[in-house]
Amino acid sequence: MNQILEIVRDVSSWLWGIPLISILAVTGIYLTVRLGFFQFRYPVYMFKQTFGSVFKKPKGEGTVTPLQALTSALSSTVGAANIVGVPAAIMFGGPGAIFWMWVIAIIGMSIKFSESVLAVQYREKNEEGEYVGGPMYYMTKGLKMKWLGVWFAFALMIELIPSIMVQGNAVSSAVNESFQVSPLITGIIIAAVVALIIFGGIKRIGKVTEILVPVMAFFYVGAALLILILHVDQVPYVFNLIFSNAFESMAPLGGFAGAAIGEIIRWGFARGLYSNEAGLGTAPIAHAAAQTDHPVRQGFWAVMGIVVDTLIICTATAFVVLSSDVWTSEGALDDPASLTTAAFQYYFGTVGGYLVSISLIFFVLSTVVVIIFYGVKQAEFLFGNKTSQMMKVVYLAAIIIGAIGGAKVIWQFLDLALAAILLPNVIAVLLLSNEVKKLKDEFFTSEHYYLKDIKQKQAKKAS
User: Which is a Gene Ontology cellular component entry for this protein (predicted)?
Assistant: First the structure.
């Protein structure tokens, strides 16, 4: 058995190295060019159509508001990776990895945009009158390849079991370390709280995440921002570290072992892609339920998800870790996951450690809530509504099993399962890229959408 697990680890490590990172990077570049560099041409317009319109009544039909769809999608991507993944990228790739994390985030916007546009375009209503969509629907209806949709849905439904176990273990470990509470008790409490939310469907999930995500992001990023304000003199130092080491190999320094340019780029790309999940096809499941008058308008919200997740939250973590110099301390390479806690403790003392632990708990809780929703939608697509309700129980049990560290053997298969989801989705997005381009061109040339918005803006200025 140990030999099999070693092979699985080796294959996973190779697959999530150059092969998959290259596929995602090339896909992102291709879609960016195919869609006319839209993320570079319309950033201000996209911001105004998303966060700039949160107090306006949403246009079109849908089950949840566009903001609720975004916060639901963000609940999945904003998690432990934002807190423990960024220092790992710094330790193995150096500060320059952060620059490449930004690069792949901007390129990945085209993938996230395309996924979400297709999810809205090919969505449908379920038995309960809720809008449902995602890769399994655009594979079935757009590509006419139901077998590919079934593959994606089944792979995601199964993959989420070990994924939820890992998340449950992360939160129980954090609670046990900070507050000395039994992992079993933590697992039961988390499962009970999650049950109250998920049995209310996407509307309740949307209402919870609409409050939870902004609060937890403000709580964590706000603390990092306070550090930045109090130590603004460190900003030039941090930016110099990032940019000066982005294009050249870095020599060993304190606890940092040094990194070649290839490793710097690889770790930056990997962190950006793992964090914002561009290409995995999960976020489009949430965006498909949004109220919108055009698929492209909801695609803008998906782009904002990358801005919040990677460009803001991951960057906040990077600033605190780099400015505190904890990454250069002896033994830092032995436990990169603890560096964020060490960095906040450097600035805030014991309170900083609690701040990171509490943030991690809420990040993981929100992640579990939404990925269970994703899994339930796969079961609904494959087997109907009754089976999807049964899967909720399976996923809740996975939280408790993971919290106590059970079934760790199947955790080793997590990366392989993720690849089984990512590959069919990337193939589908590329094959349907003409449809995305057509919808994007329609939005920006039609008198009903972009041109109408611009004319209304000009009319306001004139008055």
Answer: plasma membrane
